[in-house]
Design brief:
Elements: H1 3-40, E1 43-46, E2 49-52, E3 58-62, H2 68-82, E4 90-93, E5 97-113, E6 119-135, E7 138-142, E8 145-152, E9 156-157, E10 161-162, E11 166-173, E12 181-183, H3 192-215
Parallel strand pairs: 11-12
Antiparallel strand pairs: 1-2, 3-7, 4-5, 5-6, 6-7, 6-8, 8-11, 9-10
Protein name: DUF4468 domain-containing protein
InterPro entries: DUF4468
Length: about 220
């Protein structure tokens, strides 16, 4: 075999190895992304509210070798460290359960129509409740309950004068008199950014609480 042929074989082998390495790198990156997403996805939104990945109204996080009372204390400490003055919204059964009611202003940004004048961008306040129950080695998280609402100012119309101000509620499922909702009455998704925004928000909050609780005593 001459030198030119040897070089061609070497270059082909090198390109193949480089391709294999790139493919392996991409595979590892995709695997890591899928793993991270699966760990972060505690709940998904449906017309019935939040459900777990197996369509239950709760999910269970395994925390091996940690006693019930320690899990309770760690989650409670995590909530106290992540929220400003959470005591007002806390309802606890010592060593057994924690319920947190919270309110966040401008937590959700949604684009939708309102009043028939095209689509606008609106910021919604979010009130919600998170509930945790504990057993040795396990944390049960119940499906979050929530309400989205925004304040609107009355507008002036020459024929009728000033309109009233008030709260507009973003309904989960659209009723006959509702202007805006996340789903229609047949379960069709109407506001994808509302659905994905709520899922991302609650899964992120829960992930922060659980991860923080695991690190409470690791300092």
């Amino acid at each position: 075999m001459n030198q030119t042929a040897d070089n061609a074989v070497f270059n082909n082998n090198l390109e193949f190895l480089q391709l294999m390495n790139i493919t392996k790198t991409y595979s590892i990156v995709i695997l890591l992304l899928v793993t991270q997403l699966s760990f972060a996805q505690y709940f998904k939104l449906t017309p019935q509210g939040f459900v777990s990945n197996d369509n239950s109204d709760y999910t269970v996080v395994d925390v091996p070798n940690v006693k019930q009372n320690n899990l309770y204390k760690n989650v409670l400490n995590a909530i106290n460290s992540l929220y400003s003055n959470p005591q007002k919204g806390l309802n606890v059964v010592e060593g057994e359960s924690i319920s947190l009611t919270a309110y966040e202003e401008n937590a959700l940004t949604i684009k939708h129509s309102a009043g028939g004048f095209g689509k606008g961008i609106y910021k919604y306040d979010l009130s919600y409740t998170l509930s945790f129950l504990f057993k040795d080695g396990k944390i049960r998280i119940n499906s979050p309950t929530f309400e989205c609402k925004r304040w609107y100012e009355g507008t002036y119309r020459p024929t009728s004068g000033w309109g009233s101000s008030g709260w507009a509620i973003l309904k989960l499922v659209k009723g006959d008199k509702d202007r805006v909702a996340i789903y229609d009455k047949n379960g069709k998704l109407l506001l994808e950014d509302a659905s994905s925004g709520l899922e991302n928000h609650f899964n992120s909050v829960l992930k922060q609480i659980i991860e923080k609780s695991k690190k409470i005593n690791n300092w």
